[in-house]
Design goal:
The protein has helices at about 5-10, 30, 40-50, 60-70, 75-85, 95-105, 105-120, 125-130, 145-160, 160-180, 185-200, 205-210, 215-225, 255-265, 280-305, 310-320, 325-345; strands at about 20, 55-60, 230-235, 250-255. The protein is mainly alpha-helical. The strands form two sheets. Strands 1-2 form a two-stranded parallel sheet. It has a two-stranded antiparallel ribbon with strand order 3-4. The relative contact order is 0.07.
Length: about 350
């Protein structure tokens, strides 16, 4: 919001000063756009263009508040202290302190955050040296194609069984064998990633497995203290109602749903068989059809693969990257993917 058009239009160089939290927060666009990218640097540039370099002061208020105060809830008084120290708030310090006291909410902590904000404006480098990084960041090299395939096979084995994983391997291996004479691996890498995404669609059995067999419950218990309950918001295609737009409406389920998940996870062997009760829905049938469609598209591009058609083949193989979300969101993305495939084939 700090860099929205409505806000920046009200900024004036020489009059407006901006104390900016450099730790940007994703907006609603993150939910609506699957390819959303954080525009933090662009936002800073736009604000600076409006008020000038001297009118902007930026610091990572989130990290400081978390490390120094234990909670990012103190970001605002910290930014206020930063702005006041810069001389951008035309009030006496005593007036601001008194206002915090009169508010009578976490007075001691809010005052402390205000003072830390002043330090951030006065001696930012010295302050940053006194705190520990919030997390240790380890850069992991990009996995090789062989490592990628082995990883996805292990996941598909957990998802279904070894036969399912071997089907995946056979298709990727055929792409590798066809692409190898060209001295390239991009098509094989793309197929290895996108075929896995389609084959590991999140149906009821997989949702149950992810909740009960991957350490999910343990992570929840380690993240919260005291007496709490976990509720699940789900929209099972077979039972859920639809809204006026025909979209499935989620319903709240209590903690007992975890017991149902444990039972359901053990029934994953029914997936795709005549006894697959959940597989009868249009959504599940579409997801399985997509796997077959993708294999057909790959067969098509492999039949005429050459140096000249390689880029086209990669574009065809990459299409499922945009098939994201669940329910009506996924339905919309599937329609767009099929339309893109049709356009690529026509071209």
């Amino acid at each position: 919001m700090s860099a929205s058009k409505e806000t920046t239009l009200r900024m004036r160089a020489g009059r407006t000063h901006v104390a900016l939290n450099s730790n940007s927060t994703p907006t609603a666009a993150f939910v609506k756009n699957g390819n959303w990218q954080n525009p933090a640097e662009q936002c800073v540039a736009e604000i600076t263009a409006q008020v000038g370099v001297d009118g902007v002061g930026a610091f990572d208020a989130d990290t400081l508040a978390k490390q120094l105060m234990g909670d990012t809830i103190y970001v605002n008084p910290m930014i206020l202290g930063y702005a006041w120290q810069k001389g951008w708030v035309p009030l006496h310090r005593e007036s601001l302190v008194r206002a915090i006291e009169l508010n009578d909410v976490q007075v001691k902590n809010n005052l402390a955050a205000f003072e830390w904000g002043r330090h951030a404006a006065h001696q930012p480098d010295a302050l940053m040296k006194t705190i520990q990084p919030s997390q240790v960041i380890q850069f992991k090299k990009r996995e090789s194609l062989e490592e990628l395939i082995a990883d996805r096979m292990a996941r598909l084995t957990d998802y279904q069984d070894k036969a399912y994983a071997q089907l995946y391997q056979s298709i990727v291996s055929r792409v590798q064998a066809t692409e190898a004479p060209l001295g390239k691996t991009l098509l094989s890498d793309t197929v290895a990633r996108q075929l896995y995404r389609l084959m590991a669609y999140k149906d009821e059995y997989e949702v149950a497995r992810l909740h009960t067999q991957t350490g999910f419950v343990e992570r929840i218990q380690n993240s919260f203290e005291g007496d709490f309950k976990v509720h699940y918001h789900l929209a099972p295609p077979l039972w859920s109602k639809r809204n006026s737009q025909g979209e499935l409406v989620k319903k709240k389920f209590g903690p007992l749903m975890l017991t149902g998940f444990k039972v359901l996870a053990k029934l994953k062997g029914l997936r795709g068989t005549k006894l697959d009760y959940f597989g009868k829905t249009e959504e599940r049938q579409t997801e399985r059809a997509l796997i077959r469609e993708y294999m057909q598209h790959i067969d098509h591009v492999l039949g005429s693969l050459s140096s000249e058609t390689h880029a086209y083949a990669v574009a065809v193989a990459q299409v499922p990257e945009n098939i994201k979300g669940y329910g009506h969101v996924k339905e919309r993305n599937i329609r767009a993917a099929r339309s893109l495939w049709a356009s690529l084939n026509a071209a």
